[in-house]
Amino acid sequence: MQGVHLKKFRVKAKMTQSEMAEAIHKSRSAISKIENDEQVIDPFSLVRWTQVTGCEAQAAIIMFGADVIAQAAHMLTLVPAMIIWW
């Protein structure tokens, strides 16, 4: 995940770097480094960042691409039919 996207998520959520730092238990300096691609974000913090900002779907599309997300959504519509069939 690129820092520029994470910064966009944070700004869209109207959060300061300090507020994000508190929300994901990192220092404000770490938030700045992550957003400037000077530090790699760990998976737990990435998930928390997207949850706090409400950008889980956008992050998934950036990470996996829109095609994968569309296919996963389609497969979820098939789950009830598979349960009935079994």
Continuous helix count: 6
Give start-end ranges of low-pLDDT stretches. Answer: none
Query: Radius of gyration from the CA trace?
Result: 16 Å
Q: What is the CA–CA distance across the termini?
A: 39 Å
General form: elongated
Helix amount, in percent? over 70%
Estimate what percentage of residues fall within beta strands.
under 5%
CATH superfamily: lambda repressor-like DNA-binding domains
Q: Could you please say which CATH topology applies here?
A: 434 Repressor (Amino-terminal Domain)
* Gross CATH architecture: Orthogonal Bundle
State mean pLDDT (0 to 100 scale). 85
How would you sum up this structure in a few lines?
The chain is mainly α and 86 residues long.
How would you describe the overall organization of this protein?
This protein has six helices and no strands. The chain has helices at 3-12, 17-24, 28-35, 43-53, 56-64, 66-85. The mean pLDDT is 85. The chain has a single domain (3-85), classed as lambda repressor-like DNA-binding domains (434 Repressor (Amino-terminal Domain)). The longest helix has 20 residues, at 66-85. 77% of the residues lie in helices and 0% in strands. It has 86 residues and is mainly alpha-helical.
Chart the SSEs and their pairings:
Layout: H1 3-12, H2 17-24, H3 28-35, H4 43-53, H5 56-64, H6 66-85
Helix pairs in contact: 2-3, 5-6
Overview features:
434 Repressor (Amino-terminal Domain); 6 helices; Lambda_DNA-bd_dom_sf; Helix-turn-helix transcriptional regulator; Cro/C1-type_HTH
